[in-house]
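Here we describe the complex-level prediction in full. Unlike the single-chain runs in Section 2.1, the two entities below were treated as one system.
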Amino acid sequence: DAKTTQPPSMDCAEGRAANLPCNHSTISGNEYVYWYRQIHSQGPQYIIHGLKNNETNEMASLIITEDRKSSTLILPHATLRDTAVYYCIVRVCTHGSGNTGKLIFGQGTTLQVKP
Amino acid sequence: KAGVTQTPRYLIKTRGQQVTLSCSPISGHRSVSWYQQTPGQGLQFLFEYFSETQRNKGNFPGRFSGRQFSNSRSEMNVSTLELGDSALYLCASRTATSGANVLTFGAGSRLTVL
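The structure predicted for the assembly as a whole is:
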């Protein structure tokens, strides 16, 4: 799995967009970018994933650069409840028998949303 | 739809004892993975089970073991507990045919070894 690099911490004002960067310069062609977050004392929560196109769901948007060497998770209107550790994970996505539930978590980015 | 349920949520053991943790996956999810989270090492993959078979294993000693039952419920066991086994143990489930790497985690079992 490609290695990811994230800033250890970031602050964001409540109501503003939170932009969390992730570098994955060694990503290979069949590896997806996944984002999870972990709110204090809870299990990690899946947010979004993508291969090369930008993705959006009800929680966030994922912007992947054209060369796929970096990506940004965007929380459009951060709230205090978005305070959490955000993990960027790069992983091959396979279906069927090759599918696996093994994820390699780094240290992530601690996002502090402030009033 | 019920989420992933882990029991017990908190427990305290002493060195040398053993512990068994339980995980009930989301209904219809046949794959269960286990992770250990400590302040020093972060989140680390322990093992994964699918259809009662271990499919993948992390780099943990043999004191850590698990199993999965025919109803997809899973248990993990840690024998001869050490102080360093104090951690949050997380279970995650997923469907096996779609949503690869999209895991749903439980709230975890927090183990303290004294």
